[in-house]
Amino acid sequence: MIKAFALPNRPSRSYHSNIGDFKRFKGYKYGARMELSIAQPDDWHLHLRDGDLLEAVVSHSAKQFGRAIIMPNLRPPVTTTAAAVAYRDSIMKALHGNTDFTPLMTLYLTDKTSPHEIKLARESGVVYGVKLYPAGATTNSQDGVTDLFGKCLPVLEEMVNHNMPLLVHGEVTDPEIDIFDRERVFIDQTLKPLIQKLPKLKVVMEHVTTMDAVKFVESCEEGCVAATVTPQHLLLNRTSLFQGGLQPHNYCLPVLKRETHRQAIVAAVTSGNRRFFLGTDSAPHDRQRKECACGCAGVFNAPVALSVYAKVFEEAGALDKLEAFTSFNGPDFYGLPRNTRKITLKKSTWKVPEAYSYASGSIVPMSAGESLDWLPYLPS
């Protein structure tokens, strides 16, 4: 729903938008405040870490999202259902009981994962996916898969039996492959053969970054293969890593790509295609671990994610498609009910903090120190 009211004595400009099933609103005044009321979104790809970092960041997601798929790449990784339940308990404890936020847990796939573990995961009622990290692909992925079509095949077959999604970090790790080509090569070498071998396996290609990924997802059967898309890959391109000097807080994996790829992803998500949905890949690191000789990959975008998504959809003239991307496509793919609670995005300029302090240091968010035009809040 769109709500708008004009402030007096300001020159007018036209504004055209629509949202959900409501009529197109016209005649937005300059300086007017507009509000978008949408079903509360979920985050289908989130890193919460553990310890002090977990305590510091979890509230940023919980105050905006109803549910989140929690990534399992801790040290040690979350490889069993028992570990996933324990991690969920830690998250709930960090929330101090002051929220309706629901963490949806995942298992970290390894060459040693057993089919029986998939059965336990499904029966637990708290595990909603299994994450495939090719060994060495990203943060804490050293325990990842080295033999997907050999040692892991019985596990994948059991996942089909239990309708358990495989959540894929889609990059090869061969050092001979250029880092900007690793997603494309992974699609050709791994994903296409995987889908051909197990066509009923539900697959989420996480944090897609290229037009190659967009074309691949669009070519697959709807309901079987889908993709999450991050704020940074919609807003930034690889030049953003170097403007004004090296920008470590824009460094993530998969790395930002060319502008042509960014445009292809924007076109896909703003088209209304149900195969694409919100997944922030918010990945916090302490400032000192980002601003160092060998900085960590990951963008902490939880505080700004909804603001950035709204900006991208507004600039594309597609605010009417925002709610489906943020709130409908994800639960529909996972077979979960859509949230009934509403969240409001107010057209109100706010400044992103330069950093967030916590017990062990500070964390720099995406768009630190910049002004954004959409401010999300949950009505009481």
Written overview of the protein:
The protein is α/β, with parallel strands linked by helices and 380 residues long. It is built from eleven helices and 14 strands. The chain has helices spanning 51-62, 81-95, 115-124, 153-161, 182-197, 211-219, 231-235, 259-269, 287-290, 305-315, 322-334, and strands at residues 2-5, 33-39, 43-46, 67-70, 102-108, 127-132, 166-168, 203-205, 225-229, 276-278, 342-351, 356-358, 361-363, 371-377. The protein has an eight-stranded parallel sheet. Strands 1-2-11-14 form a four-stranded antiparallel sheet. Strands 12-13 form a two-stranded antiparallel sheet. It is globular. The two termini are 17 Å apart. The model is unreliable at 1-31 (pLDDT under 50).
Q: Helices and strands in order, then pairings?
A:
Elements: E1 2-5, E2 33-39, E3 43-46, H1 51-62, E4 67-70, H2 81-95, E5 102-108, H3 115-124, E6 127-132, H4 153-161, E7 166-168, H5 182-197, E8 203-205, H6 211-219, E9 225-229, H7 231-235, H8 259-269, E10 276-278, H9 287-290, H10 305-315, H11 322-334, E11 342-351, E12 356-358, E13 361-363, E14 371-377
Parallel strand pairs: 3-4, 4-5, 5-6, 6-7, 7-8, 8-9, 9-10
Antiparallel strand pairs: 1-2, 2-11, 11-14, 12-13
Helix pairs in contact: 3-4
